[in-house]
Amino acid sequence: MAELLLRARRIVTADGERAGAVRVSGGRIVSIEDFYFPPDTGRDEVELGDDCVLLPGLVDSHVHINEPGRTEWEGFGSATAAAAAGGITTVVDMPLNSIPPTVDLASLRAKQRAAEGRVHVDVAFWGGAVPANCRPADATPAGGTGSDLHDLHRAGVAGFKCFLLDSGVPEFPPLDRAGLVSAMTTIAAFDGLLIAHAEDPAVIAASPQPSGRSYQAFLASRPPRAETEAVSWLLDAVRRTGCRAHLVHLSSAAALPLLAAARAEGLPVTVETCPHYLSLAAERVPDGATQFKCCPPIRDQANRERLWQALSDGLIDCVVSDHSPCTPELKRLDTGDFGAAWGGIASVQLSLPVTWTEASSRGHSLPELAGWMAGGPARLAGLAGKGAIAAGYDADFAVFAPDDSFVVDQARLLHRHPVTPYAGVRLRGVVRETWLAGERIDGHTPRGRLLRRASAR
């Protein structure tokens, strides 16, 4: 790879925002120098326009790509092209909704074969924790190599996703309380990470069941207590096992006091939320608009503001898309039936401008945004060299015009099915270019790599 010098009057570095010139060699950042570093004909030079900011390439650690097995929902090519268009240079693929799910070495290899040579950004993988693969290593048949969880950890997955209630797909069953403790005991033994979809099945079973076009009826079917109860027993399992844990897609602010107390106690727990929880509000979801359905659900405006406060205070660690697409038929757009529709929002291409629109209106800065959407997810997934503009890091960048705006046109979305709750919405911030390993992503030539967790052996 040729040497490159990227000059910009605004660079969001690991130490804050500055003017400078980023020197790149071999796909990695060598140094950040003064903006007026003398020209040198021995390398390529690019200077950004005054309206643009150089951000670190974003890292989205919560993306459902669904391939192989449900490629009609989404695929590696389309999902990573959409990510690149949104300034995201690394995604971490979730283990479920593909067939087979990523719960053993064979299924991980199937994922990697499906992705090889087809990804426009770098891709890492989560493993899955389900009842069948949570046996302890000492229960492995003679001649075995250890538990499936340990095998996947050695193969370099970022950690292990579990559900504490029905996942929506039969091949990825949930863990009960005993199963959660068993899985976390195994994962703690090799200092792995468990990430959990935390809603309590008993609370949801006792709630009114959703049907029809009413969003408020759907919201009542998944009350805040479902999250607080599940978070409580997740934290109890952390206390019992010492396992590192991460709470995915926090929706309910009612769980924040539990999480704050866990942090004060010193428990190894991190938290994410998503652009849709930070931008949308239940009061403005029309009846029948199933493109807004996700689980856990979008809650009210007051809840949204409490999530923003927790993000500002550092209680929430990162913002990731939870890109969870399906076919339009499964969203029941024709009937608007919230009870029957698939729960998931496809937004990987829009997560940066959606979050920046809301963040900038509240006085937040681009360095804060980069911390939430690049540095935080990279640390979570153990991806060394990702998530910051600093010497030694990968030369992954998003060229972002933070003061420009655009209206979301579904026809310009690159994920497989252009279904979005943001159609027709004006958003602030335009991604002008995305660079991977020191080269512009052109949308035609897949150059992404398949990654392993940094500490994998």
What string gives the helices and strands in order? EEEEEEHEHEEHEHEHHHEHEHHEHHEEE
Number of strands: 17
- Average pLDDT works out at 94
* Beta-strand share of residues: 15-25%
Q: Major sheet: order of its strands?
A: 9-10-11-12-13-14
**Low-confidence sequence ranges:** 137-145
CA-CA gap between termini:
27 Å
Describe this structure in words.
Helix content is 27%, strand content 21%. It is built from 12 helices and 17 strands. A 6-stranded parallel beta sheet has the order 9-10-11-12-13-14. A 4-stranded mixed beta sheet has the order 3-2-1-4. Helix 4 crosses helix 7.
Quick summary:
This protein has 457 residues and is α/β, with parallel strands linked by helices.
Topology overview:
Layout: E1 4-13, E2 16-25, E3 28-33, E4 44-47, E5 53-56, E6 58-63, H1 76-85, E7 88-93, H2 105-115, E8 122-125, E9 127-128, H3 148-154, E10 160-163, H4 177-189, E11 193-197, H5 201-205, H6 215-221, H7 224-241, E12 244-247, H8 256-265, E13 269-273, H9 275-279, H10 301-313, E14 318-319, H11 351-361, H12 366-380, E15 397-407, E16 426-436, E17 439-440
Parallel strand pairs: 1-4, 6-7, 7-8, 9-10, 10-11, 11-12, 12-13, 13-14
Antiparallel strand pairs: 1-2, 2-3, 5-15, 15-16, 16-17
Helix pairs in contact: 4-7
